[in-house]
Amino acid sequence: MSELHLFVLWEKARFAEKRILADMARELEIVCTRELRFEDEPMRSYRRFYGPSLPDARRKVRSCGGGAFLLVVVRDRAPAYGACMVDGFAYRDVDVRLVTLKGRYRNWAGRRHRVHGTTTRAEFARDVLMLTGHSAAEWEKGVPPGEWRMQLPSIWAAESAGEPFAPGVVAPGAEPSVADARIFLENKYVNDTFLEGVFRRTPCIVKRTSKAVWSIGNEYRLASRMYVAAPTVVPRPLAWHYDCDAAAAAVVMAKVAGPSLTELLARGVTDAQADGFAADVRTLAEALKREGILHRDLFPDNLLLDADGHLKAIDWQLAIDRNHYREDPWVARNWKFRYVVFGVNRELGLGVWNDFHALGKVLALLPQTAAVKEVSAWLAAAAPEMAFAAPPKGWTRFRLWLYGCSLRFQMLLNCRRPEKLARLKRRWRTVRCRW
């Protein structure tokens, strides 16, 4: 059975237009070609078209251009769905021929993102409606006559389904409604705002940000993977949305009922509790290893006790997939945040993270029962293979050297202030390691 797909040659890919169209005509049936222009400012239009999958709209405009682009609707007479790997990216349940052609045309255009193409029926239905204002069903009947009108959404959203858990598909939609929402914490450095409320009768925490926007979608995706792998030690992701116009995003997570491990340690932890916490740490560590995910900021404040008696790891915003490392653009631009803020692995060196090492430090704070020692030994043995490094390069390395010099100077000025001096020394050890 044949099916329709589309390609978009953005402005800066059109120098290769003739070559690409000639190849398309050999491989596929070309149904329609038409030159289009965004009806709004290009950066905003790209955000509305790609939604949360676009990490940096400014870079997109620079790379692909904001002028007239070419829409090509094609028909694949013999679609074959399966899994494939193209240019280091793994695809599953896609039209393999379309994925291969998209990779080829991107290479001809000089940069990956100068050519857009659909690889599934659902992706075609979504994209063709946004770009032409006509549904996939209308296109199946032939090229829609008359005027085309783009329907680029302002909100992209996802909601998790019921049991069995499955993360929602990100699609144009409405902002998830959270009742009785109230702000309880703000982090002005990254414009994070934390709210407490109720989502579909479930107590929840909402995290909103307008700087590290891509990382909010990252939190929903990776927390969803971790929840499936280890539901006892990860809070349930409920929903998230991306506001294209405001360039802001929010994630909704089930609220964890109890205090942090830091508070529990201050009150005193019994041997029985320590054994249970050690079991939770091992469950979390095994899931991280199995899923290939690195949290990067596991310390007692980010481990909360839930009503079911299990510790749950929160704050997956800046977690990464070890196999497909992708940093939020804001984090990558703010070099001190990227290399200095993650404070649980300081002695490992600059830009080096290891969740097993961090969890080992957490267990060292608990009563040293036989169970705790056993899990600690297992973490220590497995830690070497779990390290992940993203060392700084070039200009960033030099700026960090200057930052280290400034820390040394501050240490001299604060030599009679023990608490301040200790904080400066910790930062200095982070910066000086592994230049």
Count, helices: 15
CATH architecture of the largest domain: 2-Layer Sandwich
Q: How many individual β-strands?
A: 19
Q: Tell me, briefly, the overall form.
A: globular
- The level 1 CATH classification of the largest domain is Alpha Beta
Helicity level, as a percent range?
40-55%
Our Rg estimate from Cα atoms comes to 25 Å
Give me a quick take on this structure:
This protein has 435 residues and is an alpha+beta fold. Helices cover 41% and strands 23% of the residues. It folds into four domains: 3-140, Nucleoside diphosphate kinase-like domain (Alpha-Beta Plaits, 2-Layer Sandwich), CATH 3.30.70.141; 155-254, Phosphorylase Kinase, domain 1, CATH 3.30.200; 262-303 and 315-334 and 349-387, no CATH class; 392-435.
Structure commentary:
The chain is of the alpha+beta class. The protein has four domains: 3-140, Nucleoside diphosphate kinase-like domain (Alpha-Beta Plaits), CATH 3.30.70; 155-254, Phosphorylase Kinase, domain 1 (2-Layer Sandwich); 262-303 and 315-334 and 349-387, no CATH class; 392-435. Helices cover 41% and strands 23% of the residues. It is built from 15 helices and 19 strands. A seven-stranded antiparallel beta sheet has the order 8-7-12-13-11-10-9, covered by helices on one side. A four-stranded antiparallel beta sheet has the order 2-3-1-6, sandwiched between helices. Helix 9 (271-291) runs antiparallel to helix 12 (355-363) and helix 14 (394-413) runs antiparallel to helix 15. The radius of gyration is 25 Å and the shape is globular.
